[in-house]
Design a protein that fits this description.
420 residues, alpha+beta, BirA Bifunctional Protein, domain 2, Rossmann fold, 2 domains, 8-stranded mixed β-sheet, 5-stranded mixed β-sheet, binds adenosine monophosphate, aminoacyl-trna synthetase, Histidine--tRNA ligase, nucleotide-binding
Length: 420
């Protein structure tokens, strides 16, 4: 082992498990790419003010968990704790919203950083695939995103997840609710920290997981009862469209999220096999965010799904993905001349699009055949001096054990025929 280890709260993705991560990213992005979402990639760090303004100064993500740094040039930067603020910043900077077609639909995939208390399913470096639909207020767009996330999870074979749905109201009705909630919270027996939170960000108290807090929340005013007519109608339409697609959800009156920018539609995907870190993804509408970061009014909606927790959810459900084996053909050469020739053949196979590997390291026949087995290849190409003197190689089917001589020049065709 090296004297160094991956930093606390992080882990390395290594084969073979890493293949599942790639497959999860692929499965989540496929329905998006199929629905008009274009790929966006932004830097891993941003002006720290983008996050303090966009995500919210009072959120845990910004106040406690953000990795910040001052560069030698004096810039204050933050490692991105989430994707939405950066993606919206990039869309505005690139003037995508002025090109005519609203909504601008974007998807992304990348690493995010939060200085959290590390535990199973909660890391300081994690990976998300996300989607944002920028610049349209249309309940069908909220519904589309919920339906696409459901489709992504189902395509992976996940079954034990639930969709929680709520509306957080808008700038008309939420302030009225906020006050009613604060009045209620002020009358409870809460610790100092929580009372402070009730003043700054009272909706977050609803999300407090502690039993001592939850049991006092019986009878708490619910936003549902304060929604204005426009928010109510919008929410009903989202619910109807999602239901019509056959996607089952649960109304969750207490669902809020850890970011300040959400308005109206809010949702979370939870998996029942993950213990306390049960959220595998979440998102919602953020109609005010663009203005908060200096842009024009651009009502938008999006989600981010956690890749790490989705993999854990697959493992919890015992779902084995049907991953294509990386190598189709494994070449085993005995002797120097054979090595040279077979290495050339491997190159030729690869250039023809066949996934091929070679027995490196100058091993004997036995060791090389072990490598061939381990590679999972369906075919082995074996050749020694005697074969080559006859202008042939031995093509072995690793599943049946059958072996036959194939002329060197016909190898590509023979391999293709066997793999077909
Ligand atoms: P959030 O923006 O906090 O709702 O995050 C969206 C999704 O990212 C969550 O549902 C998780 O699946 C994932 N996620 C967030 N924070 C972490 C973390 N610290 N470790 C692993 N996954 C995370």
């Amino acid at each position: 082992m090296s004297t160094f280890k991956a930093p606390k709260g992080t882990y390395d993705l290594l084969p073979p498990r890493s293949a599942t991560f790639l497959a999860v990213r692929e499965a989540i992005s496929t329905p998006l790419r199929n629905s008009g979402y274009g790929y966006v990639e932004t830097p891993g760090f941003e002006d720290v003010k983008l996050f303090s303004r966009g995500v919210g100064e009072s959120t845990d993500i910004v106040s406690k968990e953000m990795y910040t740094l001052t560069t030698k040039g004096g810039e204050e930067l933050g490692l991105r704790p989430e994707g939405t603020a950066s993606v919206l910043r990039a869309a505005l900077q690139g003037n995508l919203h002025k090109l005519g077609n609203l909504p601008v639909k974007l998807w992304y995939s990348g690493s995010y950083y939060r200085y959290e208390r590390a535990q199973a399913g909660r890391y300081r470096h994690f990976s998300q695939v996300g989607a944002e639909a920028i610049g349209a207020e249309d309940p069908a767009l909220d519904a589309e995103l919920i339906i696409l996330a459901d489709q992504a999870y189902r395509s992976l074979g996940l079954r034990n997840f639930r969709i929680l749905l709520n509306s957080l109201g808008d700038k008309e009705c939420r302030p009225v609710y906020r006050e009613a909630l604060q009045d209620f919270l002020r009358g409870l027996d809460l610790d100092e920290d929580t009372l402070r939170r009730a003043e700054i960000n009272p909706l977050r108290v609803l999300d407090d997981k502690r039993e001592s807090v939850q049991k006092q929340l019986v009878g708490v005013p619910l936003l549902r009862d304060y929604l204005c007519d426009a928010c109510k109608a919008y929410h009903e339409e989202v619910r109807a469209l999602v239901s019509a697609a056959g996607v089952v959800f649960e109304d969750d009156d207490k669902l809020v999220r850890g970011l300040d920018y959400y308005t109206r539609t809010t949702f979370e995907f939870v998996h029942d096999g993950l213990g306390s870190q049960s959220a595998v993804g979440g998102g919602g509408r953020y109609d005010g965010l663009s203005e908060m970061i200096g842009g024009p009014a651009l009502p938008s909606v999006g989600w981010a799904l956690g890749v790490d927790r989705t993999v854990l959810a697959l493992e919890a459900e015992g779902v084995a993905l049907d991953l294509p084996t990386a190598t189709s053909v494994f070449a085993v050469a005995i002797g120097e001349e054979a090595r040279r020739i077979l290495f050339g053949k491997v190159t030729e196979l690869r250039r023809a699009g066949v996934a091929a590997d070679f027995s490196f390291g100058g091993k004997g026949l036995k060791g090389s055949m072990k490598d061939a087995n381990r590679s999972g290849a369906r075919l082995a190409v074996v050749a020694g001096e005697r074969d080559l003197a006859e202008g042939v190689v031995q093509l072995k089917n690793m599943e049946t054990g059958e072996q036959r001589a194939v002329a060197l020049d016909d190898l590509l065709d023979a391999v293709r025929a066997e793999l077909a």
